[in-house]
Write the structure tokens for this entry.
Amino acid sequence: MTKRIIVYIILGVMSILLQKFLDNFASLGSVAPQLVILFVIYISLREGQLFGVTGGFIAGLANDMLVTHFIGFTCFVGVLAGFISGFFYRESEVDLAARTLNFAWISAVTLFLTELIALPIVAAGELNYFYVFLKFTIGTTVYTSVFAMIIVFVNGKKNRYV
Amino acid sequence: MFTWISEFFSLAKNYIIFALLLAISLFMISANDNNYTKGLQAAGLVTTAYLETGVQHIVDYFLLSSRNKELLKENARLIDLAAQTHLALDENEQLRQMLNLKSHSTTPLVPGSVVGRSSDGGRNFLTLDIGSDDGVHVGDPVVNGSGLVGIVSSVSGRFSLVRTLLDADSRIAARLVNATADGLIEAGSYGELKMSNVARRHDVKKGDIVETSTLSSLVPPGIVIGIVSRATDKPGNIFKEITVQPAVDFSSIFAAFVMQYKPPTAAATLEKEAIGKK
């Protein structure tokens, strides 16, 4: 378990650093892929809901400190993502959820729900909620899901795309 | 009571921790202006700054490598440019000398550019972009601002082939200006010329000027051929061995004049008359 935690810490640090890079160079109209949230979903699918929620909080806090500089927001989204994706955790079918195309659609559903719940925070002060919904909720979900599919194709079990 | 609480916690721990962390997150969002939160932000900014500086160093390292390549390329381009400038200066100098020559020459001069060179097996020719259409004839002398280049050996409508002084078959009557001695200039070794048929009694020194002779029926007299670089007497040889450094730099010649020279016919007529009287 300790070894796995070390691997997750390394993965988490890498995803935050990559997130920083993507925010600077790959954001489309201030919409960037949420790699940290993908990481939270991944650990939640591999280790369960509690691990996902705690990991989401820690990774989110680190991301807020290092990337967004808006303390609490990614924590909030991370905790939600860990919690929602935790419902898809199956102890006996870890690889099936985390390393097949299931990961992509679970990520899409989780991201949509978390971004939807976080919409009031994102849209604070905005009059046009629908615009913010389209741009951030849908935009982030689609953009991040594309990355989720890339991760599946790079890291996934090639013969088990379900 | 305690058991009930313990069972409840074990059943609902995910929800409890989720609710707790969610509440903390919301609290932190609402307290973004709080001093503690600002402390976290500051710590994050400092860490990010360090990370970005580190990344920048790495990026700079790779950029330096590519910048170094760009500078090397730029250096090569500048060297090429300097070489071209040097060639242009040489060409300019030659053209200035030729212009000076043209203003002083009484013989009509046809200017031409060197469009080809061939030097192989003792042969040494230049190709000029002027030919019979421009009034060039076989046997016309060719000069540039420095001195005699050679003699036109063949002509087409638009081009002419010049046998230079360095060609093995080139023979030009020449004169040592200081020693007032005549001889024959022909190709020597290592890009030099040799002057033959100069008697040992003549006082020839290094640096003496060699020019075309009045005895030549091919070229007008007084055109510089070169300067003496070495003059020696060998036992048993009635002639001096003279090496001449050509005035013309044949390796960098860009342009030349063809002289439309017609040798004076009076002397030849007199000679013929004298022979006829005998």
Observations:
- The radius of gyration of chain A is 15 Å.
- The first helix of chain A runs from residue 2 to 25.
- Chain A has one domain: 2-23+30-160.
- Chain A touches chain B at residues 17, 20, 49-50, 53-54, 56-57, 60-61, 64-67, 69-73, 75-76, 79-80, 82-83, 86, 121 (CB under 8 Å).
